[in-house]
Amino acid sequence: xxxxxxxxxxxxxxxxxxxxxxxxxxxxxxxxxxxxxxxxxxxxxxxxxxxxxxxxxxxxxxxxxxxxxxxxxxxxxxxxxxxxxxxxxxxxxxxxxxx
Length: 99
Hints:
- The chain has helices spanning about 1-35, 35-50, 50-65, 75-85.
- It has about 100 residues and is mainly α.
- The termini are far apart.
- The model has no long low-confidence stretch (mean pLDDT about 90).
């Protein structure tokens, strides 16, 4: 019985991975439709270097596309601007007080 339970868990895990892969492919397909080639390539570079940031970016791009806020294809410059806004952190100042 434990072998059957283990096989069932393994099957469920595989199904979950398969569904996640399908969702990822759908997101990429939609992003490809609303972006220029250069912007899409930059997005894929972000995916390789920082998957968490990629997830935020692709979700934002898809929501912009679904809400019809993209008037034309998203360019690489626009993507850079979005990246800058997402990753913006004000510089901290270090002050030294002299005696």
